[in-house]
Design brief:
Length: 150
């Protein structure tokens, strides 16, 4: 849910309308990434880029696009999330977002220690920055952006 919220915020900050027809829900597995991609690519206006909720779903996405005879990134760009080991071994290597796991763990331990030391528990939201790991699955859009803004 948080990743979908982030996607919606990114669209809003770029003045791009959210389109529910471009969203598919999945269970984070390769097979689901494959099935969701086939579904997306059968729409009247298939996307030129697919942002997957994690790297495993992105692997399924890459397989589906290959099955459809599409070239990544010439025809469709793909981005994963998590920078799992498998992201370095896809063909082409998967562009992905890297979670700062060490920083997240450090913050969690800090909160636990605060609570153990008697500090009052308070609800808080902590945002961490993700890092783009550029590899080989992203290219320029196949249709000029100006044509998409009709």
């Amino acid at each position: 849910k948080e990743r979908l919220k982030g996607y919606r915020r990114a669209l809003a900050s770029a003045d791009i309308a959210f389109d529910e027809a471009l969203v598919r829900e999945g269970d984070w597995q390769i097979a689901t990434g494959f099935d969701c991609t086939l579904s997306l690519m059968q729409t009247a206006q298939p996307p030129s880029a697919i942002f997957c909720a994690n790297d495993l779903m992105a692997v399924g996405c890459l397989e589906a696009l290959r099955t459809l005879g599409l070239n990544v990134p010439a025809d469709v760009s793909v981005i994963g999330y998590d920078d799992q080991e498998i992201a370095r071994h896809t063909h082409p290597p998967l562009t992905t977002l890297l979670l700062p796991n060490y920083e997240m763990g450090r913050l969690a331990v800090e909160m636990l220690l605060d609570e153990a030391n008697g500090m009052p528990h308070r609800k808080r939201r902590i945002k961490v920055e993700v890092q783009l790991v550029e590899r080989g699955t992203v290219g320029p859009p196949r249709t000029p952006v100006l044509l998409l803004k009709k």
